[in-house]
């Protein structure tokens, strides 16, 4: 049941991602100003599939503990709930449990007794196969229909949650909610939606503030707060020397979103085509005119798996002749390395690959460099060998080592020497981790594919 209220709801977003650096003075400032909930994202898919496949966080445990400790002490003092989405970077069950254990450690050390709701969204493969058979799973571009072999290949699969599980936890009396994979906006929109505020401004305010103070005009401070009413939201940074502007607020719709006017979320689409941004005072911006278009409820599926193995080598080059013809050098060296590996390694050549990435030239996008681009002062060339096993990847790298170190642009000249960055030169990187799914599932309800457990430390204290 929705906990309706008529006054606007104020949400404190202490940081863009838990572990990135909460500022205690900002949290206190926001709560003293009347914030009713603390909400933060704690991860994403930005850093690749490894964190879901392995069930680990990319963040340092100490950094996450520091941030969470600040928030938990504030929660105990001001009696406002904490909502955390995509716990432990990827939001799988192992990631959530890792975050839960940090929270329990903090509670023991600080003498805190919160009621903690732990929300899981990792999916059982049999459940997904049944959903697939029922036609409840559909692909997103560029993938095609999902088959059972792909489901089986995944090590961990999560269904990305909307706000409803958070609302259910709040209804059940949670002081702290540690949730699995969630849309960045859902964790911030949940409390205003629970309190009956406008649907469109709740979602729009959440989108603007998902990265904390990045929606502000100046690069200072970590947190932000937004105030949601029936048909508007207001936003300002928590740092008193920072400010929001119509430009800084409106621009955030471009962040991780291909359409600057429409944002797809579970159960609907936020449309900000007609949104208006008004400077209320030197620090606050008001936004009106957002619209919410209800759609059939779907949850995105993310599945990660272990792939082949890689071994890498890195050299630095300052040879002026090479630097003047980097594209030619790349093609000739790659052809030579591939041919040498085929001659010297007893393995199916279709089972492995070699790639060269020229840092300082075009390693990031891999696209041809425009004609007339001046040569760089120096480059680093990364040789990446990908193969079914680590041993094979390393064998190929070792076979390539002499050519990678000495390959001449002009075979008529004396052999050059390039600078290996490390010794031994070949570095076993381990397995590659891959996302296997880009699909959505239609649940029977927003909480069908979600599991909730409570750790009630108030009962422990009472005992």
Task: Give your account of this protein's structure.
InterPro entries: AtuA_N. This is Acyclic terpene utilization AtuA family protein. Pfam families: AtuA. The protein is of the alpha+beta class. The chain folds into 2 domains: 273 residues, no CATH class; 130 residues, 2-Layer Sandwich (Alpha-Beta Plaits), CATH 3.30.70. Helix content is 32%, strand content 27%. It has a 10-stranded mixed beta sheet, sandwiched between helices. Strands 5, 6, 15, 16, 17, 18, 19 and 20 form an 8-stranded antiparallel beta sheet that branches. Helix 7 crosses helix 8. The mean pLDDT is 96.
- Uncertain runs with pLDDT below 50, 5 residues or more? none
Number of strands: 21
Q: Total helix count?
A: 14
Biggest sheet, spatial arrangement of strands: 12-13-9-8-1-2-3-7-4-21
| Principal-axis shape | globular
Q: How does the helix and strand content classify structurally?
A: alpha+beta
Distance between the termini: 31 Å
> Helicity level, as a percent range?
25-40%
How many domains is the backbone divided into?
Answer: 2
Please tell me the overall pLDDT: 96
Rg, Cα atoms, Å: 26 Å
> Strand content of the residues, in percent?
25-35%
**Main β-sheet: number of strands, strand sense, barrel status?**
10 strands, mixed
Which features characterize this protein?
32% helix; 463 residues; 21 strands; 2 domains; single chain; globular; 14 helices; Alpha-Beta Plaits; 10-stranded mixed sheet; alpha+beta; 8-stranded antiparallel sheet
Can you describe this structure in just a few lines?
The protein has 463 residues and is α+β, with helices and mostly antiparallel strands. It has helices at 24-32, 50-54, 61-78, 93-110, 125-133, 148-153, 164-171, 186-194, 199-209, 246-251, 320-324, 326-344, 390-406, 457-462; strands at residues 9-13, 37-43, 82-89, 115-120, 137-139, 156-159, 176-179, 224-228, 232-237, 262-265, 268-271, 276-279, 285-288, 291-294, 299-317, 353-359, 379-387, 419-420, 427-435, 439-441, 451-456.
């Amino acid at each position: 049941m929705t906990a309706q209220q008529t006054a606007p709801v104020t949400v404190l977003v202490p940081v863009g991602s838990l572990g990135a650096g909460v500022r205690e003075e900002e949290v206190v400032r926001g709560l003293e100003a009347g914030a009713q909930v603390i909400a933060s994202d704690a991860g994403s898919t930005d850093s690749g599939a490894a964190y879901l496949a392995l069930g680990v966080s990319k963040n340092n445990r100490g950094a996450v503990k520091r941030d969470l400790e600040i928030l938990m002490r504030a929660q105990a003092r001001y009696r406002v709930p904490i909502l955390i989405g995509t716990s432990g970077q990827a939001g799988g069950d192992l990631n959530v449990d890792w975050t839960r254990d940090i929270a329990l450690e903090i509670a023991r050390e600080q003498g805190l007794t919160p009621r903690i709701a732990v929300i899981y969204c990792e999916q059982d493969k049999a459940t997904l196969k049944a959903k697939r058979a029922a036609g409840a799973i559909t692909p997103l571009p560029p993938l095609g229909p999902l088959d059972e072999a792909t489901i089986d290949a995944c090590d961990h699969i999560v269904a990305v949650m909307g706000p409803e599980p958070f609302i259910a936890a709040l209804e059940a009396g949670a002081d702290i909610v540690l949730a699995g994979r969630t849309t960045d906006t859902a964790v911030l929109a949940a409390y205003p939606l629970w309190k009956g505020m406008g649907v469109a401004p709740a979602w729009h305010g959440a989108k603007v503030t998902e990265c904390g103070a990045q929606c502000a005009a100046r690069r200072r401070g970590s947190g932000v707060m937004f105030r949601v009413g029936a048909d508007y939201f207001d936003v300002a940074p928590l740092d008193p020397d920072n400010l929001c502007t119509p430009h800084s607020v409106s621009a955030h719709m471009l962040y991780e979103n291909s359409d600057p006017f429409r944002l797809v979320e579970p159960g609907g689409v936020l449309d900000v085509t007609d949104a208006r941004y008004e400077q209320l005072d030197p620090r606050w911006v008001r936004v009106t005119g957002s619209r919410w278009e209800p759609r059939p409820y779907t949850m995105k599926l993310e599945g990660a798996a272990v792939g082949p193995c890689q071994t890498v080598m890195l050299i630095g080059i300052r040879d002026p002749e090479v630097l003047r013809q980097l594209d030619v050098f790349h093609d000739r060296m790659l052809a030579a390395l591939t041919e040498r590996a085929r001659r010297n390694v007893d393995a199916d050549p279709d089972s492995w690959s070699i790639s060269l990435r020229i840092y300082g030239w075009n390693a990031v996008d891999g696209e041809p460099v425009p004609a007339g681009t001046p040569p760089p002062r120096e480059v680093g060339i990364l040789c990446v060998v990908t193969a079914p096993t680590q041993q094979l990847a390393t064998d190929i790298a070792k076979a390539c080592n002499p050519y990678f170190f000495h390959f001449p642009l002009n075979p008529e000249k004396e052999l050059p020497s390039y600078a290996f960055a490390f010794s031994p030169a070949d570095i076993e990187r381990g397995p590659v981790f891959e996302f296997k799914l880009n699909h959505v599932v239609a649940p029977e309800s927003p909480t069908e594919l979600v599991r909730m457990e409570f750790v009630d430390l108030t009962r422990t204290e009472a005992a």
